[in-house]
Amino acid sequence: MHLFKTKNVHLLLVGCVCATYSFAASADSAFQDSKHIDPFLGLEFSSSINAGYGFDDNVLHQRDHDIISSNYYSLKPTFSVVGQRNTKNFGLYYSGDYRRYSNNEVKSDGYDDHQIEGIFKWELGIRHHLELTGSYNQGHESLGTGVTNGFFFDNEATQPSAATFDYFNITHDIGKTKKKIDVKYTYGAKYAKGNIVLDLSREYTDYNILDSYQSAFINYLKNENVTENNIKVTFTHQYTDRLRFDYTLLYKDFSYLDPDRNNDELIGAFSIISQLTGKSKIEATVSKVQKKMQGSNFSGVNWNVAYRWQPVDYSTIILKTVSEAKEPDNLGDFVQSEQNSIAWQHQFLGNITSYLSYKHISDKYHIRKRKDRYDYLDLSISYLFRPKIEFTLGYKHMLFHTNNSADPVFIDGNSYIRKLGYEQNQFGLSVKVAI
């Protein structure tokens, strides 16, 4: 695999980067959401819709064979309503993501994703603040990703030892639902130097299980459903108007259908948020993680560091590095993941904005001899035609490589060989309109 398939992509990137240097203007233009005020209740309504057309050269995330490309149509509506009554603030937010493919081979892989979130804030007094949040996300996992990562097609014969879509009767993307409830209590004056924050949350992740799936795959999905409970206590110390320290103690509990997969984490973290200068800001967190599983324990150090530099009003660069231990798979093998990324946003001619980002992820398994590499490149140019109308031309490149492409997946007590790794390119043109 190569990072770019054609020389045309090289020329596109060089041309767009050079263009950002050609002209520069004050960043005085930005997309404006429409806001409508209800004269009776005083509620504020806002909505927009984003319609797009694009091309995906590897819809099903296949490594070498049965790579299917397709044009697609997309629609992304948003809607929100917010209000305030005395010391109470509340908001309801909806966003949708609809996509349809024109290629008949992947028509069934179109999807309708929905996300709803409600937020309620209540100032109980000068030193007491309560925030309630609830969210519902009806999404999906594309074939070849998530629980079907490395699955492939076998058009000649069904192989019981291979992780094929045909063997498990998988004909389209896997539905996935997430529900989360969060309660946050803050003690301390709003702009005091010190506050104590208690945060309790519970999140449910459930896969949509179809009767048409093969019985082993049904049991596999049931055992991937998880409930996560979090208890977090944070002490924030505003040392100066430009410097803040956070001290956090976090407990996580993960519950599965199979009790042998249940595990918990205890995390102690220290964070620093500093506005170094008028043009630069850093946010850094270092945490000590103690993970307890049924068969073994894990201890490690994680970090999350982000640096933001804005030398001028119309140009911003963000550097980020992250190290974290991911939730273990059904074999109890956890992954140490390291991420490094850079993003650059630049505005010129007052109403044209370019965005370029690159992210590299390296995953190392601790039990199996396996290392994965992910590379993501994102390039877009947006033109603000009117304050409430914006056109965007975008390109995305994704590359997944592993040193163990046949690493099996274990489903209902049996192992199935996979074909891990893929390369994907997407081009798209969209228009966003505030309603």
Care to describe what's here?
This is Capsular biosynthesis protein. Keywords: Signal. This protein has two helices and 21 strands. It is globular and about 65 Å long. Helices cover about 5% and strands about 60% of the residues. The two termini are about 45 Å apart. The strands form two sheets. The chain has an 18-stranded antiparallel beta barrel. A two-stranded antiparallel sheet has the order 19-20. Strand 19 and strand 20 form a beta hairpin. The chain is mainly beta. It has a domain at about 35-325: Porin (Beta Barrel), CATH 2.40.160.
Q: How would you characterize the largest beta sheet?
A: 18 strands, antiparallel, barrel
Give the CATH architecture of the domain at 34-323.
Beta Barrel
Mean pLDDT across all amino acids:
90
Instruction: Write the element-wise H/E pattern from the N-terminal end onward.
Output: HEEEEEEEEHEEEEEEEEEEEEE
State the shape. globular
Tally of DSSP β-strands:
21
Helix/sheet category: mainly beta
Multimeric organization: single chain
Percent of sequence in beta strands:
over 45%
Radius of gyration: 24 Å
Distance between the termini: 43 Å
Q: Uncertain spans, ≥5 residues at pLDDT below 50?
A: 1-27
CATH class of the domain at 34-323: Mainly Beta
Organism: Photobacterium phosphoreum
Protein name: Capsular biosynthesis protein
Keywords: Signal
Signal peptide: 1-27
